[in-house]
Structure formats: structure tokens, C-alpha cells
Design goal:
Layout (H helix, E strand, L loop, with lengths): L1 E5 L27 E3 L18 E10 L2 E13 L13 H13 L4 E2 L3 E2 H5 L8 E3 L3 E10 L10 E3 L11 E4 L4 H12 L2 E3 L15 H4 L6 H15 L1 H7 L13 E6 L2 E6 L4 E6 L13 H12 L7 H12 L8 H15 L4 H4 L3 E7 L24 E5 H9 L8 H11 L6 H13 L4
Parallel strand pairs: 1-3, 8-9, 14-15, 15-16
Antiparallel strand pairs: 1-10, 2-7, 3-4, 4-7, 4-8, 5-6, 8-11, 12-13, 13-14
Helix pairs in contact: 7-8, 7-9, 11-12
Length: about 450
Amino acid sequence: MIILNNMYTGRYISAWGNLGHEAINLIRADDGKFYIWLNSMGVFPSAKAAAAKDCTVIMVRSINSHMYKVLAYAKNCKLCDGAIISRKAKNSGTEDKVQRYNAQISMHVTYNGRCPIHSIYKEEDMFATFYTDEVLEADGDVYLTDDVALADGVKIFYVTDSFRISEAMRAYVDAGHPAEASLTALIDKVRWRRIAANSPGSISQPEFNFFKLIRKERDELSLSNALAHFIGKVGMIPFLQRCLSLEGQLLRDEYKMFRERNNIDISFFGEKNVIIIENKIDASITYNSKSTLNSQIEQAVNRYHNPTHGTKEDYTRIIRDIISPHSGDISQLSKYYIYAVAYLLAKGVGQDEVTDRIKCFLLVPKYSKIFKSDKNGRLDAPLLLAKEYKLITYENILKYFETLTVTDPYYDDFKSALRPLASEFNNELEQDMKYRFFKAIGLI
């Protein structure tokens, strides 16, 4: 049996300093073994106990609805004492809890020579589900996906169409399941490394900022609000020129900046130009399954039609002419672009000029594996008008703002929130959990 153990999924993780039970999974105990907590409650179903003998546990973290990040794996895992004592309501909850606790205490698991596991978590119940001799960490960022279009077989592995990535805390893959071969291949192909001795090493206290305080450090809405705020502080034209590398006629305009105009995260509407920034951190692009190309065009024309510059039929024909060289599924990206075309037609921009006066950007974390670009830096996806969107990363944004001095009480917090998104690897949460655990056992 292979078990996918989805770590760091509860909202409690966002609480500053809180320590989840799964923090033990990547830390060697004093007896030389690793103890693994199986989310969410630790208890393993007794009906599956026989099949779980010497099982393999792959530890993952949800990235989005189609992707897990692979953190580590352990083979030859054995059930801990008390791990199959049920939590079901039909049993005596208090007696079961005490029985689980006493069984786990009898294992005498300690860390740093002086910290029994029950003193770390301070609750009289379960502490560990499995034990094993070795846990191996992925050497670099490795992902599992149920979307074959995202897989590359090197860093992003496809699980098979019979398996779906979800927010579930655990998933069991029994022998013979179609996903078993995919997961075994992942273990064989990925480069793994032994976990270093329990030393803080380069692990330091994570930066604290206002976004973490309100649990919005990865929230697209909050970060888009902050980005728009600070663009307003430093000036739109300098931002467009130095951060987005725009030039010429695109800088000779009077822009107004908007948040969520036509559902666009950040947009700049001028007299003759439109700039679009769509922000994607964990979410994927929204396909408009209930919409059609005709309805997207109709909505845009009805919103912006100016009879001075043609009839609605003229607008519709021009928009169709402009997008006719493109193909792919309709999505929020095609909607935004079509709105921009209709807006410029209403401003009197001619058909032959419109495409040069619309610039679209897809803003993503540097570590993102969800989106790919072609050799020209354009979005490589089977979506209508995808090639009109240039990929930029939070590294671009951070580098720009780090060159500036801005008088604002939240400016340092803003830059602090950008740093994890501007990093090559998405490992802040794992490092944070290790820091919290080392602090709990007195190593920090």
C-alpha cells in the first residue's frame, strides 16, 4: 500500500507559532527512527491495518486543485502502538483517548535528549501513526498532478486519470490500483536526499509581516490590493516603464488604475491604451464553462459601445477579425482581452492599431509550475488569446520595489510578503514548521 499524506492543510497552521502534529514527520527522534503523523487525526483504520504492513508513505502538500508538492517519502513504515484504536463515536471517547495515549507513551519517543513527544504537544492522545528507519526528502521542487498537460516527467509527474488531486488529508493507493505504478515511478525517478541531523543549520525565524498576521500572505485579493496601493505611491508610468518594460506610445497616455474592473485584478485604462495584470498565486486560470465566445463579445460590446465610432455590429465584426488568428478554449483571459478591444474601439482607436495598444501580463510566483511560457515569454496554454499574455514573476515586482524608498508604514511588510513568492523554491512553510519544532524541543 502507498499512502499519500497531505501535510500542512489545516487553518491552524496559519496561526503564528502553532505547531502541527505532522512537524515530526521530517525530524529524526532520539532512538534513530522517524515517527510519522497521518493527517488529519493520526488514527489508522483497523480494516486497512493488514494491507498497511510495511507500507510506503509519500508526504505531500496541496498547491492547488490539480497539484501536490512532494516533500518526502518513507518506505517500510510500521504502525505505532495505539494507532488503530478507533475514534468513532460509538466507542467510549474518553476510554479510547486514554488507551491511545498510554500506548503511545509506552513507546518512549523523545527529541533532543530531553523532550518526550507528549510534552511537545501537551495533549493526552495520539502523537504518531507510523515509525520507520528512514525518511528521504525530495532534492528540489517535485510535484504530482492529475492534469496531464502540466506534467513533464522530470519535476512534475502525472498520476493517471483514475486518481484525483484533492484537499483530502490522506489517500490510500492499494496494490493493483492504476496510480500505484505512477507513484512507484515517481519514487524511482526523483532524486532524494537523507534528512540532515537535527540541527537548525541555516533555518532561521521566518519573517513576520502584517499579511501573515491576518493570514493573507498567499491571498491574491490582498496582495493585488497591496500592489495597486504601492503602484499608486510610486507612480503608474515609472512602474509600467521600469517593471513591465513598456515603452513608446504605451507610456504617453493618461491612465487610471482599477482593481477588479471587468474582474481584472489590476488594470490601467488610458485614452488610447489598456494594460492588464492578472494575478495568479495558487489558483489556476478560470475556464468559462457557462460562457461562449459570442456571449463574451456581446457583453464587452454592450458595456463599451460608442455609436460615434461604429455600430454594435461593426464592433462585433472587428473583434472577431482580431481574434480570428487565435484558437483555444475560452477563459477569463479571453474575456479580459475582448473587453480591452471593445474599450479601445469606443475610444476611436482604429482596428489596425488596437492590438499594439493592449498589453497583458500574467503575474505568478517564481516557483510556479502551473504556468509555462514559450521562448518569447508568452503564456503557453491551450487557451484562446493565451499568447497575448506575457508571464512575469513576483521576482520582477520585488526587484523593482527594492530599488525604491517609499514612506508608508506597511511598505516593509509588503516587500516581506513578496519574498517567498519571488523565490526559486516553494519551501517557506516547511522551513517554518521545522523552525517551530526545533524551538519547541529547545534547539533554538
